[in-house]
Predict the structure.
Amino acid sequence: MKYLVQAIGFFALATFFIACSSDGSSSGPDENSDLSSSSQDLSGSSGDWSWNVSKESFLNPDVDYGSMTDSRDGKIYKTVQIGDQVWMAENLNYDPGQGGSGENKYDWTWCYNQDSANCEVTGRFYTWAAAVDSVTTGCGYGKTCELSGNVQGVCPKGWHLPSPTEWALLFDAVGGQSTAGKVFKTQSGWSEYYGSNGTNDFGFSVLPAGGRDVDGTFAYVGYNSYFWSSTENYKNFADYLYLDCAYEDAYIISNTKSVGFSVRCLKD
């Protein structure tokens, strides 16, 4: 269960969003390289992505999905068993609202371009503090939280944020990290000019949802996807799963806790 971990600095949008290469080819992030470098600025475009689609259209019709209902808001999510794990087959779209007080107060969840209709397709973006539920844990940027065990965070009861180890188990179940990106990605929606769509063989159905920068910019829908894990990397960073339209790999990388990424929940 081997995976790549890379720390990234707290800078501008291009610094933490790893974009597809201009020719659609790359061996992936280099542990010793500056990941802010990109030969193509993709922040103002959306590749082959269209919002005029339903989330159901991205599922694999040949996969037998289950379902679960989030009792907090009544939203229904498709689920899928891969190996011994049961995952949500959609991005979480639960709005926790504002919470906490003082420095722990947060309203750190968003829909792409602040349009609530977009959340119905790709789910919400969360800072890491919101993803791990900073109200109850007191975690967030600038604090070392030292969480252990299953971290429910913003996930429904009976579900939790995955750890890097659990992501790695998922890699193993689908044939390895080097092709996990290809089999995780949906069969449509990803930029085919800079990369390619996936096969979605196992029904995990990862959409190129993009993310939100610390400066409030939304970017890279159609190109990249980012999912928080439950583990931090020093007090200002946390680990996340990264998929890029140009790579067949899946990567576990670290970034500032203040960016907005998607959440996939794993059943306890």
Q: What stands out?
A: Residues 164-173 form the longest helix (10 residues). Helices lie at 13-16, 116-122, 128-131, 134-137, 164-173, 177-184.
